[in-house]
């Protein structure tokens, strides 16, 4: 009985050792916060803040129904697309957005909007904004941004709209 117990203990120790070795082989070589070590990769706090400022220009331009407030957030070659009620792709160059804001939107000072996600890798980023009752419309926007000449700029926007509740 004692011999069986010792063999079981040795087997368990070998199994745990093999599992730990396999886990170590699969883990990243750089430390992560989950491992209780200091991260060696740079963080994107300043970029996150800069992107938030860019996106807030867009939100404020929508709320005030003034494209002049949001224009600086977009690269001149930016595009905007959505799927229309007919199920077809609609959109094009970003001036379409500016024209729609100026002609079709009305000021909505009580509208709510939130930047719900920002993801950054190097000079590329994506973001999501959810807005409620912006000129009678609720929508979700997905933005792609690039850091061009040291400044974050929106290069594309896709979106989905629905009637505000």
| Cα Rg | 25 Å
Oligomer: single chain
Structural class: alpha+beta
How many strand segments?
Answer: 6
Report the uncertain regions. 5-34
Secondary-structure element sequence? Answer: HHHEEHEEEE
Question: Which percent band covers the strand fraction?
Answer: 35-45%
- Which outline best applies? globular
What is the overall pLDDT average? Answer: 84
User: How many DSSP helices?
Assistant: 4
Distance between the termini: 72 Å
Largest sheet, order of strands side by side? 2-1-6-5-4-3
Helix coverage percent? 25-40%
* Major beta sheet summary: 6 strands, mixed
Describe the model.
This protein has 165 residues and is of the alpha+beta class. The protein is 36% helix and 37% strand. A six-stranded mixed β-sheet has the order 2-1-6-5-4-3, covered by helices on one side. Strand 1 and strand 2 (89-93) form a beta hairpin. The chain is globular, with a radius of gyration of 25 Å. 18% of the residues are buried.
């Amino acid at each position: 009985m004692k011999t069986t117990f010792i063999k079981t203990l040795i087997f368990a120790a070998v199994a745990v050792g093999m599992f730990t070795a396999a886990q170590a082989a699969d883990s990243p070589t750089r430390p992560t916060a989950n491992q209780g070590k200091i991260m060696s990769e740079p963080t994107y706090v300043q970029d996150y803040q800069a992107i938030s400022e860019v996106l807030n220009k867009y939100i404020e331009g929508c709320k005030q129904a003034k494209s002049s407030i949001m224009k600086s957030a977009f690269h001149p070659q930016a595009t905007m697309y959505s799927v229309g009620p007919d199920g077809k792709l609609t959109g094009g160059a970003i001036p379409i957005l500016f024209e729609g804001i100026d002609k079709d939107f009305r000021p909505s000072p009580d509208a709510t909007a939130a930047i719900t996600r920002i993801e950054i890798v190097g000079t590329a980023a994506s973001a999501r904004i959810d807005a409620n009752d912006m000129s009678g419309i609720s929508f979700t926007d997905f933005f792609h941004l690039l850091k061009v000449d040291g400044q974050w700029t929106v290069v594309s926007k896709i979106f989905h709209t629905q009637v505000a509740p």
